[in-house]
Structures are given as structure tokens and as C-alpha cells.
Amino acid sequence: MSQARDITGLTVMVIDDSNTIRRSAEIFLGQAGCRVVLAEDGFDALAKVADHAPDLIFCDILMPRLDGYQTCALIRRSPRFGRTPLVMLSSKDGLFDRARGRIVGSQQYLTKPFTKDTLLKAVAEHAQPAAPASAAASAADPA
Fold this sequence. Notes:
Elements: E1 11-15, H1 19-31, E2 35-39, H2 42-52, E3 56-60, H3 68-76, E4 86-90, H4 95-103, E5 108-111, H5 116-126, H6 133-140
Parallel strand pairs: 1-2, 1-3, 3-4, 4-5
Helix pairs in contact: 2-3
């Protein structure tokens, strides 16, 4: 399946302790016209998420200090970012990891290493550009 919609201009956050994975994702997403925000771990991501308001977040599971499950759960608790699509990344491909990712609120699970097509397909499938605050408020209150 080809990329269904234009993802140019979307802001995508990639949280991974592997420099190689972060750089690969940055290159693939940048070539597709996305604005990319990189974070080395969960704490770094939590510090950056409010400043950059990503349209989609990719989050590694196994990271030092704050793992991907904890990071995802904290983002989900945020009133502002609780509905931001989140895709878990892992070198493991087990049923337990996939299920735990769903429990903490991820939409999808990608196994590393991922291909450019797989990464861009996930962005096209899940990301929705952030709506202006006034539009979001009026959509929430259809009175």
C-alpha cells in the first residue's frame, strides 16, 4: 500500500536511546517533509513534548531512566497530549510487549529495525495535524 496521504509538515517525535535509530528516523521523516523532534529517553521526551506539540510520537520500549511504557503512560495522562497517536518501537516482537503497549495506550507497534516505507506508512495512518485550540474547543462542545 502506498502512502495514503500527504504527511508534509507534520511534527513527529522519535524517542529512542539508540543514536542510529534516531538518525535513521530523522532522515526518513525529513525526506518526507516532516518536522522531526528527537529525544534520547523518556525524561528528555517529556521535557520536549510541550514545546513541540508533535502530531505523532514514536517511542522505544527499552530505554534507561524512564522506559517506553512509563513514558507512554505519562503522555496519555496529559490533558493536552493524551490523544496524540503513539507508536511503540522495539527490537523484540513478542505478544507480551505488543499487549503491554496497547494497555498503556499505543496505537501500533513497530519492530526495529524498521524500513522507510513502514515508518512513513505508520505516520500516514496515525498522525492527524494538531487542530488550533479554538477549533478543538468548538469540536468538543457542539452546543
